[in-house]
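Internal QA ticket QA-208
Title: Verify multi-chain structure generation after dependency bump
Assignee: T.L.

Test input:
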Amino acid sequence: MAIAPESSLFVLARGGRSTAMAVSMVELHKRSYSATSLLLPSPARELYFSRSLSIPSRPVKRSWCNISSFSPVVMSFMTSSKLIDGKSIAKKVREEISSEIMKIKDSTGIVPGLAVILVGSRKDSQTYVRNKKNACEDVGIASYEVNLSEDCTEEEVINHISVFNDNSAVHGILVQLPLPRHMNEEKILNAVSIEKDVDGFHPLNIGRLAMQGRDPLFVPCTPKGCMELLRRYDIEIKGKRAVVIGRSNIVGMPTALLLQRENATVSIVHSYTKNPEEITRQADIVISAAGVANLVRGSWLKSGAVVIDVGINPVDDANNPRGYRLVGDVCFEEACNVASAITPVPGGVGPMTIAMLLSNTLSSVKRIHSLN
Amino acid sequence: MAIAPESSLFVLARGGRSTAMAVSMVELHKRSYSATSLLLPSPARELYFSRSLSIPSRPVKRSWCNISSFSPVVMSFMTSSKLIDGKSIAKKVREEISSEIMKIKDSTGIVPGLAVILVGSRKDSQTYVRNKKNACEDVGIASYEVNLSEDCTEEEVINHISVFNDNSAVHGILVQLPLPRHMNEEKILNAVSIEKDVDGFHPLNIGRLAMQGRDPLFVPCTPKGCMELLRRYDIEIKGKRAVVIGRSNIVGMPTALLLQRENATVSIVHSYTKNPEEITRQADIVISAAGVANLVRGSWLKSGAVVIDVGINPVDDANNPRGYRLVGDVCFEEACNVASAITPVPGGVGPMTIAMLLSNTLSSVKRIHSLN
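Actual output:
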C-alpha cells in the first residue's frame, strides 16, 4: 500500500507532473515496496492489512477521507487546526543551505559534494537519483553519479564506495535502494564511511542516536525532517506524550529515539499493538509512519494534539487522470477538527526529506573541514 | 539514592556478607554514583528527586515499604503474586553454562577467556572485579586481569585493550567502570573489539539492537537478564503493553529495545514524564530501572501486571547491623497484592546480570570458534 517517503519526495517537489514517475509509483505500489513497510517483517505487514483496525485492506474508496490536502475542499476543513506547511519550510531550509554553501565557497573555495551510486535500471530509482541531483544543483552541491548494471558484483559496488570514501571532494555517499536481490544490502551499506553516511542508516549512527551522552554524525533524513517541522513551528516536545506509529529502521524507530532525546515520553505503536487507538489518543504529538491510508481517524486523536503524517499512500481515484491520488496515514479532514496542528499529504513531511539530505551533506562538509 | 545493578550483584551473590563491600556501597550511595542514574543528565536526576512523585528525596523511613523481600514478613505478603526467583534462575543458568563449557573443553580443548581491566584502586571496583573472577572460575572461564594505577594514561589502557583484542585466548573484554576522571570513557570503550564487547555497550551493538533485521553481537547483561527471567517464567511479551521506567544506556534503553524486538508495545517513562503512575498502570509488563527506592507503588500497577524490579537502593535501617538495607524501585509488599508475578530485591534481577556476563562470554567463544 505504502510508498516510501522518498517516493513522494519528488512528486511533491515537482508537483506530481512526471508521468514516468507516476507510473513508477504505481509499480512500487503494486510491488508493495515501501521504505517504511519493507523493513517491517512480512507477518507484521500482513497484520497491518488484516487486523480489525477499521481500515480497509485495499485503497480507500470513501471520498470524504481521500481528498488532496491542498484542495480548496480540504482547506475548508481547516477550522481548528494550524497547517504545518512542510513545502514552505523545506523551501526556506533549502534557501538557508544554499546561502551557507555560497559563503563557504566564497571564503574557502570548498564545494560540497554528494555521490550517488545506482545499480540497475529501475525507472523509479533513476527518477529519485535524477531528482537528488537536481536538488543538489539548486543549492550548489556538486553531485557525483555512478551507474552500474543490474548484474554487477557486490565487489564492484563496494569498490566504487571505497573510491568515494577516499575522494576528498565527496562529503556524502548514498547507495540508491533497493539493490538487486543478489546483493547483501547490509554489507554494501556498511562499506560507506560513517563520516559520509548522509542517510544516517549506519548502525553506529543509530546506536549513538539511542544513547544518552553520544551524538550521531548524521540523523536519518525523514525523522530529522519531522523534528525540524516541530522545531520551526515552536511545538514543545519536552515532557509531552508522543506516539510514533510504525517502527521501521528508516522512519519510526529513529523518530522515536529523536523524540526521546528531546525528553518526550514516547510510545511506539506497531502492527502487534492491540489498542492503537487508545494509546494514540493519549498523545500530545502523533507521528505516523505506518504506510496505511487513513489508518489514524479523528477518534484516535486527543483534542489539541499535533499530528505529523509521514505516510504517503496511493488510493484509487477515478476522477484523477492518474487513476489514483496520494493520502497520508491520517484521515486529514477528521483530524483537522481535533488536532491543533497537522501536516498535509502531500506537502508536509515529504518535501522535508530531501531538504534534510542537503542539510546532512552541508553538515558533513563543515565537519570534515572543521568549518563553523 | 541508587546503586548500580552491578553493585548489588555481588551483595546478592555473596549474601551481602562483605563488610568492605557494604562500606563501598554506602560510599557509592553518598556519591550518588549509579550505573543507572549516572547516565541520566544531572537535571534529570535532580527532577527525579524533586518532583512530586509522592516519593521522599531521602532514604525512605516507613518500614512498611522497606522490608527485605526475602524476610518472612514479606513472604507473607505473597498472597496473589508469583515470586520470580532470579537467584534460582541465575544458578540454573550458571550450571548450564558450566556444563556447556565443559563439553567445549572436552571436545575442542578451547578454554573461554574473559579479560578485565581495572584502573585505580577503588574498593568497590576491586570487589566487583574479584567477584567476576570468582564467577568465571566457577563455570570454567579463564580470567585475565590487568590492574593499572589511577594516574596511568589513556594510551596505556588502550594498549592493554589492544593486546587483549589480539589475544586469541581472550573472548571477552571488560573495562571496569568508572574510569578516573581524566580519561575519556567513550574513547576507551570504543577501543574494545566489537567481537569481544561482552558488556554490549558499544554503540554498534546498541544500533543493531534497535534495528529490525540486524542482530547485536552482544546484549547488555542486565537487560538480557530481565528478558531471560520473562522467558524462563513463560511470560508472553508479544502484543503486551510494556512500560520501562528509566532510560539509562545500560539498562532502561536497551531493555526497551529488547521488549520491542519481542513485539511488545513499549513506553519509556523517565524523569520528564508528567504522569508516570497513569502510564505505568496501563502496562502488562513493568520493568523499573529508575534507581529510586519505592518509586512504584501498588497504585501504579494494573492488576495482574508482571513486575521486574531492576532497582537496588539502600534505605536507612537502624535495626540492620549495616545501618541500611536494600530495596528495589517497587514497593514490594504493595505490588505483590496487585501483580501476577514480581521479582524480589535482592534476589531478582541482580543475580542474573553476572549470569548473563558469563553467557555472553560463552556466546563469544562459540562465535569466534564457529562452535554450535
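Spot checks passed. The longest strand of chain A covers residues 113-119.
Status: verified.
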